């Protein structure tokens, strides 16, 4: 298939040339890479990737098409994709459409025929940065002018923008356990995992007050994953502090983990290039066992802030770089992890965390 030419320009001036995939156009965001060998549709629809350009390290993308059930939200919120080889045909018999048709339908601009190995090595060295993809601009000065308009991810609040506008329910309304889930960019499979364990979920907008959620009389609370910088989410930190005072079970994933940490006096920081993929090794320091995890985050909690904090205990550690991957409150029924136990596709080693949450509720 003959494709239109496209250009990828990074904030440090590095340029890659390739061919257009998806929608003809120009779009920018923070560029980052994901090492997952499968699950591109789940990646593209994960709200945590809002405003980011995804570099898939797997060389063949699009070969199994797309299917309506393999999504984590209603539609992709990514700023674009960068791939090595883009497949125009797909072989999975139950696929509903090609990836090209899916990207066009949702207005996602991408670039293919890029040396993604070279690009990833560059990002590992220089760190995550803004970038722009275009099939419209030939002049790099004009493209640079468009790139300059893209906001930095540091200091960017996005969760309230992607959160549900109205509360909604998920699961069996006759279930004995009710969990209030605060939507900062929640993934559908989190709700599935809770519902599969006999939980009736009510999903609330990001800025809902604790008083409003308490009217539903939930047994516990869940803080979801989501995009953006937790350091500028004071409204969510204050909500988390109020939830801790309720002494009801509280579970946080990814951004929810960072919000719990900040509510306990632990800071957060922007990582050099983040953790994104299906193959990150985590050690559970309570059991001594390791688990292979799915991760997607560009921010983390500050390890040094925990040593002198009597309210926070480390439960999980990333074995590649020693970053904190899980904490619990020492006197409240609250815990969180910096990875995705609900991942699908991906490893299921961490699904036990949902069981621990239910045990906390039932005790």
UniProtKB/TrEMBL annotation:
A GO term for molecular function: ATP binding
Biological processes annotated in GO: 'de novo' pyrimidine nucleobase biosynthetic process; 'de novo' UMP biosynthetic process; glutamine metabolic process; L-arginine biosynthetic process
EC category name: ligase
Region (CPSase): 1-177
Substrates-to-products reaction catalysed: hydrogencarbonate + L-glutamine + 2 ATP + H2O = carbamoyl phosphate + L-glutamate + 2 ADP + phosphate + 2 H(+); L-glutamine + H2O = L-glutamate + NH4(+)
Pathway membership, UniProt: Pyrimidine metabolism; UMP biosynthesis via de novo pathway; (S)-dihydroorotate from bicarbonate: step 1/3; Amino-acid biosynthesis; L-arginine biosynthesis; carbamoyl phosphate from bicarbonate: step 1/1
Keywords carried by this UniProt record: Amino-acid biosynthesis, Arginine biosynthesis, ATP-binding, Glutamine amidotransferase, Ligase, Nucleotide-binding, Pyrimidine biosynthesis
UniProt xrefs under Pfam families: CPSase_sm_chain, GATase
Active site location: 254, 340, 342
Residues covered by the Carbamoyl-phosphate synthase small subunit N-terminal domain: 4-134
Binding site for L-glutamine: 48, 226, 228, 255, 258, 296, 298-299
EC number: 6.3.5.5
Family, similarity comment: Belongs to the CarA family.
Record function comment: Small subunit of the glutamine-dependent carbamoyl phosphate synthetase (CPSase). CPSase catalyzes the formation of carbamoyl phosphate from the ammonia moiety of glutamine, carbonate, and phosphate donated by ATP, constituting the first step of 2 biosynthetic pathways, one leading to arginine and/or urea and the other to pyrimidine nucleotides. The small subunit (glutamine amidotransferase) binds and cleaves glutamine to supply the large subunit with the substrate ammonia.
PANTHER family, per database record: CARBAMOYL-PHOSPHATE SYNTHASE SMALL CHAIN, MULTIFUNCTIONAL TRYPTOPHAN BIOSYNTHESIS PROTEIN-RELATED
NCBIfam families per UniProt: CPSaseIIsmall (TIGR01368), PRK12838.1 (NF009475)
Subunit structure of this chain's protein: Composed of two chains; the small (or glutamine) chain promotes the hydrolysis of glutamine to ammonia, which is used by the large (or ammonia) chain to synthesize carbamoyl phosphate. Tetramer of heterodimers (alpha,beta)4.
Protein name: Carbamoyl phosphate synthase small chain
Annotated source species: Litoribacter ruber
């Amino acid at each position: 298939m003959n494709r239109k030419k496209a250009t990828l320009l990074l904030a440090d001036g590095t340029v890659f040339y390739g061919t257009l995939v998806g929608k003809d156009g120009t779009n920018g965001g923070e560029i980052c890479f994901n090492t997952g060998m499968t699950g591109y549709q789940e990646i593209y629809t994960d709200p945590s990737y809002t405003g980011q350009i995804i570099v898939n390290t797997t060389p063949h993308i699009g070969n199994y098409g797309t299917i309506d059930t393999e999504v984590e939200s209603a539609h992709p919120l990514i700023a674009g994709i960068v791939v090595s080889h883009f497949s125009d045909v797909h072989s999975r018999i139950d696929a509903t459409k090609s990836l090209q048709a899916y990207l066009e339908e949702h207005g996602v601009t991408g670039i293919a025929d890029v040396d993604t190995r070279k690009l990833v090595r560059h990002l590992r060295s220089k760190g995550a940065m803004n970038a722009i993809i275009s099939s419209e601009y030939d002049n790099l000065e004009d493209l640079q002018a468009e790139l300059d308009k893209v906001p930095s991810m540091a200091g960017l609040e996005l969760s309230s923008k992607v959160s549900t506008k109205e509360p909604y329910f998920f699961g069996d309304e006759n279930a004995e356990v009710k969990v209030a889930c605060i939507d900062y960019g929640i993934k559908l499979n989190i709700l599935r995992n809770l519902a599969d364990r006999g939980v009736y979920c009510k999903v609330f907008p990001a800025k809902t007050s604790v008083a409003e959620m308490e009217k539903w009389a939930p047994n516990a609370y869940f803080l979801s994953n989501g995009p953006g910088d937790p350091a500028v989410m004071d409204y969510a930190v204050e909500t988390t502090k109020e939830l801790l005072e309720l002494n009801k079970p509280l579970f946080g994933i990814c951004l929810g983990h960072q919000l719990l940490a900040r509510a306990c006096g632990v800071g957060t920081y922007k990582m050099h290039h983040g953790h994104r993929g299906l193959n990150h090794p985590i050690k559970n320091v309570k059991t001594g066992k390791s688990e292979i995890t799915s991760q997607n985050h560009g921010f983390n909690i500050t390890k040094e802030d925990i040593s002198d904090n009597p309210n926070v205990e480390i439960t999980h550690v990333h074995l590649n770089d020693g970053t904190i991957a899980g904490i619990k409150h020492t006197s409240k029924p609250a815990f969180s992890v910096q990875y995705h136990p609900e991942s699908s596709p991906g490893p299921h080693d961490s699904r036990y965390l949902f069981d621990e949450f239910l045990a906390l509720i039932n005790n």
